[in-house]
């Protein structure tokens, strides 16, 4: 796991191109609770705009547990398009784990919508190389 000090962040000097490059390089960021308040001052709004603002880590949290938690979370980015694709598992998972992930993600997505199930026209499940299967 790579890290950067406050001095390294100051060297970026709110340079939009460097901050964008940093945001593209990593999927997520972790920061200590003490440092989380300084990040907007050091980097500006760059990380927040791309949706990668750091997750706070307290001094008594385990870094490996927090990193695994971030790896296992998914983001639903609801935009103006009427279609949404989300990864809910991988090949090494058991059937039960996949089913629980599907149920959890579908129920969470429906809870985000204004009219809940009335906003959902259809749901499809698709593997990377397989045919899509209609669920709803």
Can you give keywords for this protein?
42% helix, 136 residues, two-stranded antiparallel sheet, two-stranded parallel ribbon, mainly alpha, Rossmann fold
Summarize the structure.
One of its GO terms (molecular function) is RNA binding. 42% of the residues lie in helices and 7% in strands.
Topology:
Blueprint: H1 6-12, H2 16-25, E1 30-32, H3 33-36, H4 39-43, H5 46-49, E2 55-57, H6 63-71, H7 95-112, E3 124-125, E4 133-134
Parallel strand pairs: 1-2
Antiparallel strand pairs: 3-4
Account of the 3D structure:
- It is a single chain.
- With 136 residues, this protein is mainly alpha-helical.
- It has two domains: 6-71, Rossmann fold (3-Layer(aba) Sandwich), CATH 3.40.50; 74-136.
- The protein has helices spanning 6-12, 16-25, 33-36, 39-43, 46-49, 63-71, 95-112, and strands spanning 30-32, 55-57, 124-125, 133-134.
- A hairpin with a 7-residue loop joins strand 3 (124-125) and strand 4 (133-134).
- The longest helix has 18 residues, at 95-112.
- It is elongated.
- The mean pLDDT is 79.
């Amino acid at each position: 796991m790579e890290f950067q000090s406050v001095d390294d962040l100051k060297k970026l000097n709110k340079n939009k191109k460097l901050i964008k490059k940093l945001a593209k390089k990593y999927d997520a960021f972790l920061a200590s609770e003490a440092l989380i308040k300084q990040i907007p001052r050091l980097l500006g709004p760059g990380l927040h705009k791309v949706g990668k603002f750091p997750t706070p880590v307290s001094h008594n949290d385990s870094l490996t547990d927090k990193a695994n938690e971030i790896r296992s979370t998914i983001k639903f980015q609801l935009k103006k398009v009427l279609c949404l694709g989300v990864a809910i598992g991988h090949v090494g998972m058991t059937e039960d784990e996949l089913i629980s992930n599907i149920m959890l993600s579908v129920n969470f997505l429906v809870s985000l919508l204004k009219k809940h199930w009335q906003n959902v026209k259809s749901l499809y499940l698709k593997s990377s190389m397989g045919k899509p299967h209609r669920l709803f």
